[in-house]
Amino acid sequence: MIKTLLENFNPENSPLIWLVCAFVLAFVIAYQTFPTILYVAKEKHLMDEPDSRSMHSSKTPTLGGIGIFFSLVVVMTIVGAMLNTKALLLVMGGLTILFFLGLKDDLTVLSARKKFIGQLFAALLLIIFTDTRIIGFSKIFDIDILPYWVSIGFTLFVYILIINAYNLIDGVDGLAGCIALLISVFFTILFYNSGALSLATISVALIGALLAFLKSNFSSKNKIFMGDTGSMIVGFLLAFFTISFISQSQTNIDSEYFRASPALAFAMLFFPLIDTLRIFFIRIFILKKSPFEADKNHIHHRFIQAGFSHVQTTFTVVLINLFIVVIAFNMLHLNLNSQIGLLLVYGSVLYCLPFIIVRVFNKNKKRVKV
């Protein structure tokens, strides 16, 4: 009976039900896994020790990435059996490489060079064997199709940029998880509408895993951090979704995102990318130091310094990024250069707005006291 059911079942005939099942499975597996991870981490003293840069004051487990990884792998294994796609196996391979690299970094210390090599290898697996790459600049600065090897090199750069930009925003409770959740929701909708069921399944599974993680990440008693394990595999998936979306749009002239996909992808990833650009500028040109030297100049640090709590910081940033994406979807009628130019302007203004409001509020508060 089960054999007959499996032989006659086609996920593409019931995509919505299929995605709901993938979401529920990912959530349940992750939700049931995190308590075990917390118990083992506490028993074996696998905790993050607060230092001068830490935004927390107590020892906290940093192995949340294990639960996310386990949840995703189980879902993709089942999906692979049903959909039989090569891309899913390669994604699992890339995730596994980054999982073990991140786990070693969370438990001991891993050099930046080894992490970089691992990221390159994981990204190259997908780029070369699935030919999923950014084939051109969609007329940005009048540049269209790129030569094959230039396309591979640029796609590889985008992978490394997104993975590490995402890692840099993992600084306050819930921020990295909520940003990834928001981005994954948009990609799930885009992939579902385009009929890319395999991609939609991975993104909806990530949503389920992240929701289970956020419950523990926001907890005051049983808190757990994503760690390098989580930030690398989640960043890798966000990069994969971004490049897959751009690649699909650029190769389909009938797609409504044929020319707009780079701007939409930039809008979804605006916070991690603009924060990385900003922090590198400050370190290189203002502080005159290495761009890879850690400090407290990230946007989320500025929110905390301005008086925002962790939760307020997270939800303010997520809300702003949501506005940015909604605006981007309403600018599809413009040419791509105009979309990106305006995105930089209104995105920067929106992120400056909370600080302006706080400053004005504090000034008025002082006047009232006087």
From TrEMBL:
Source taxon at top rank: Bacteria
Pfam families linked: Glycos_transf_4 (PF00953)
Compartments it resides in: Cell membrane
Topology class, membrane: Multi-pass membrane protein
Protein name, as recorded: MraY family glycosyltransferase
Keyword annotations from UniProtKB, A to Z: Cell membrane, Membrane, Transferase, Transmembrane, Transmembrane helix
Signal peptide (from-to): none
Transmembrane segments: 16-41, 62-81, 87-104, 116-136, 148-167, 174-191, 197-214, 226-246, 266-286, 307-328, 340-361
Source organism of this protein record: Psychroserpens ponticola
Keyword Cell membrane: yes
Cited PANTHER family: PHOSPHO-N-ACETYLMURAMOYL-PENTAPEPTIDE-TRANSFERASE, UNDECAPRENYL-PHOSPHATE ALPHA-N-ACETYLGLUCOSAMINYL 1-PHOSPHATE TRANSFERASE
